[in-house]
Amino acid sequence: MATMANIAIIGAGNIGEALLSGLIQSGYDPEKITATNRSSQRSEVLRERYGVRTTNDNHEAVQHADVVFLCVKPAGILDVIAEIGEGFGDADNTPVRVSMAAGITLAAMEEAVALAGAPIARVMPNTPMLVGKGVLAVTYGRFVDDEQRQTVDELLAAAGEVVTVTEPQIDAVTAVSGSGPAYFFLVTEAMMDAGVSLGLPRDLAERLAKATAAGAGAMLEGEDGPVQLRANVSSPAGTTARAIRELEESGLRGAFYRAMEACARRSKELGEE
């Protein structure tokens, strides 16, 4: 864990709270964390739940911060960066800003900062970070030094697996891991509906599909890859082989290609709007 840097979490909604929760569970000192939210009621919940400092004043939150996590919606990220940048004196003393917003480029964020040379990083998280199982792909701007990179990597690791990528890879990362959990949820939903169609009560079909998805996910964390795992359960001329053949002939693999290409295109569009 990073040497107890002072942290500000701007916009502590679901993603911000997931990071906050992971940090506290990993033993981070709550006195070192300040979280902001526009709702005073939400701020009170965070303060009581985690023991962190809270405020609705972004300027106040970042005054002594070493790392500022920006967990606001993409449409508001540049305004927030410009807002919090007004209170810093020079690039040597400014905190590293870490954006968790989709689509907004490093160049756009660097331009929004009044102070030249401000360190900025960009992260594509995903929702399993809510249970400490996230994938957090991070790309660093040119002004982030090695010590700041190490600090950010260690802080993000509290919420899941951290991978460093180049910015041109971010749109593809969004398609694979950023939006990826929704694909698995959709497959699970389809399995539930199919189970009901086959005559199972909905609650039983849901229980079976969810437990199967969770078990398969756990197996993917082992040494065998998905191809081998699928082969292990697919007996020649058996029930699983018949089902896989039907899925392939129905164009499942091609549908994933098209869906993920569309996702990547949309991620790129967000950065250009």
Care to give the gist of this entry?
By secondary structure, the chain is of the alpha/beta class. Helices cover 53% and strands 13% of the residues.
Number of strands: 8
Q: Can you give the mean pLDDT?
A: 91
Radius of gyration: 21 Å
Query: How much of the residues is beta strand, in percent?
Result: 5-15%
Helix content: 40-55%
CATH class category of the largest domain = Alpha Beta
Q: Name the overall outline.
A: elongated
Order of helices and strands: EHEHEHEHEHEEHEHHHHHH
Count of helices?
A: 12
The biggest sheet, with number of strands, parallel, antiparallel or mixed sense and barrel status, is: 8 strands, mixed
| Widest β-sheet, arrangement of strands | 3-2-1-4-5-6-7-8
CATH third-tier fold name of the largest domain: Rossmann fold
Runs with pLDDT <50, length 5+? none
Please tag this protein with its features:
single chain; 273 residues; Rossmann fold; ProC C-terminal domain-like fold; 12 helices; 53% helix
Architecture overview:
- There is one protein chain.
- By secondary structure, this protein is of the alpha/beta class.
- It has 2 domains: 7-166, NAD(P)-binding Rossmann-like Domain (Rossmann fold, 3-Layer(aba) Sandwich); 180-272, Orthogonal Bundle (ProC C-terminal domain-like fold), CATH 1.10.3730.
- Helices cover 53% and strands 13% of the residues.
- It is built from 12 helices and 8 strands.
- The chain has helices at residues 14-25, 40-50, 58-62, 74-85, 106-112, 146-156, 170-178, 180-197, 202-220, 226-233, 239-249, 252-272, and strands at 7-10, 33-36, 53-55, 67-70, 96-99, 120-124, 134-140, 160-164.
- Strands 3-2-1-4-5-6-7-8 form an 8-stranded mixed beta sheet, sandwiched between helices.
- Helix 7 (170-178) crosses helix 12 (252-272) and helix 8 (180-197) runs antiparallel to helix 9.
- The relative contact order is 0.10.
- The model has no long low-confidence stretch (mean pLDDT 91).
